[in-house]
């Protein structure tokens, strides 16, 4: 599931005891960030914090800039200093949780989101972010409960509806996922990624024509969207239209000539009637994906006999 976090907004002034000069410089830096002039904003935040090391908003915003610049250690130090100064500020707790979530520490992230919710039980972003942390901890039911509460607070929030639908899909609740995706598309009819997601739900429910239609709609909006092209190739293969499936896979290779699944899938299709072409595709896949060399070598070996080729085809059909 794609990670969905509410954008962490540039912090507003948390205290009013700062000097007038610092306040003016803070607002100037905030505007520079909006204009994507990150380095200039960073210089101003540095100046503010030299004058007043307790200026929490500047610490938070500087931490956000350090995150963008990939300076994880410095961002963490600024967040820790800010937490020492304002341990109960919910936006800060949410930011810190999001920081740890980004850096693959979901249990610690969950702690900060939960702490924010203890202080402000109706703080929607923390529910959404904690759902993300719970998902990464493989606690899907807990994640769905968090999103349920978030939706009770903001019932028309499309991002939350989408996140919930994606979790329903992950939990194999395909009908509920389908309903959620349809609601998102009613609000965002140009969302080609969600047409692709809904196509997968249709497929799992056995509505193959609906799935095919959604994939075509997605590709009419973005004809280079590889996940949709690949999914359509799988549907075409399942229908027995191997030529069209290979055509889609060739398109993928022109978009991204290092997309390994396109070569392996092409090999599986060519195994039906041309083992030489199958082997050539497996060799490319093996070169691009050396971690799975054994799998590709096993398929290459199977191309030596009719029985082996049929086994490859059968397995592919079962997986689709």
List the helices and strands and how they pair.
Layout: H1 20-34, H2 38-51, H3 56-68, H4 72-85, H5 90-102, H6 106-119, H7 124-136, H8 140-153, H9 158-170, H10 174-187, H11 192-204, H12 208-221, H13 226-238, H14 242-255, H15 260-270, H16 275-288, H17 293-302, H18 306-319
Helix pairs in contact: 1-2, 2-3, 3-4, 4-5, 5-6, 5-7, 6-7, 7-8, 8-9, 9-10, 10-11, 11-12, 12-13, 13-14, 14-15, 15-16, 16-17
Short account of what is shown:
With 320 residues, this protein is mostly helical. The chain is 75% helix and 0% strand. It has helices spanning 20-34, 38-51, 56-68, 72-85, 90-102, 106-119, 124-136, 140-153, 158-170, 174-187, 192-204, 208-221, 226-238, 242-255, 260-270, 275-288, 293-302, 306-319.
Which terms would index this structure?
disordered N terminus, single chain, mainly alpha, 0% strand, 320 residues
Description:
The chain is mainly alpha-helical and about 325 residues long. Helix 9 (about 160-170) runs antiparallel to helix 10 and helix 13 runs antiparallel to helix 14. Helix content is about 75%, strand content about 0%. The radius of gyration is 25 Å and the shape is elongated.
What is the helical fraction, as a range of percent? Answer: over 70%
Q: What general form does the structure show?
A: elongated
Strand content: under 5%
Rg from Cα: 25 Å
- Output the helix-strand order: HHHHHHHHHHHHHHHHHH
Intertermini distance: 20 Å
Structural class: mainly alpha
Instruction: Report the major sheet.
Output: none
Q: How many E-type strands? A: 0
**Helical element count?**
18
Arithmetic mean of pLDDT: 91
Low-confidence stretches: 1-18
């Amino acid at each position: 599931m794609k990670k969905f976090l509410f954008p962490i907004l540039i912090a507003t002034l948390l205290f009013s005891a700062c000097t007038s000069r610092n306040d003016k410089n803070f607002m100037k830096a905030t505007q520079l960030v909006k204009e994507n002039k990150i380095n200039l904003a960073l210089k101003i935040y540095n100046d503010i914090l030299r004058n007043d090391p307790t200026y929490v908003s500047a610490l938070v915003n500087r931490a956000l800039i350090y995150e963008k610049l990939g300076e994880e250690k410095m961002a963490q130090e600024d967040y820790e200093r800010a937490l020492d100064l304002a341990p109960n500020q919910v936006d800060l707790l949410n930011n810190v949780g999001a920081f740890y979530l980004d850096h693959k520490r979901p249990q610690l992230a969950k702690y900060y989101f939960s702490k924010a919710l203890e202080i402000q039980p109706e703080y929607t972003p923390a529910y959404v972010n904690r759902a993300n942390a719970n998902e990464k901890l493989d606690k899907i039911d807990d994640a769905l409960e968090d999103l349920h509460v978030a939706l009770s607070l903001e019932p028309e929030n499309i991002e939350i509806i989408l996140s919930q639908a994606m979790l329903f899909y992950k939990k194999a609740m395909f009908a509920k996922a389908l309903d959620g995706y349809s609601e998102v598309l009613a609000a965002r009819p140009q969302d080609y990624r969600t047409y692709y997601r809904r196509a997968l739900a249709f497929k799992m429910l056995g509505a193959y024509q609906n799935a095919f239609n959604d994939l075509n709609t997605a590709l009419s909006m973005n004809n280079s969207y590889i996940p949709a092209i690949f999914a359509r190739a799988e549907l075409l293969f399942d229908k027995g239209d191997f030529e069209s499936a290979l055509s889609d896979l060739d398109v993928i290779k022109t978009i991204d000539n290092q997309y390994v699944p396109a070569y392996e899938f092409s090999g599986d299709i060519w195994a039906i009637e041309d083992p030489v072409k199958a082997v050539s595709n497996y060799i490319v896949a093996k070169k691009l994906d050396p971690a799975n060399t054994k799998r590709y070598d096993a398929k290459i070996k199977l191309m030596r006999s009719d029985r082996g080729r049929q086994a490859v085809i059968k397995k592919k059909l079962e997986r689709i």
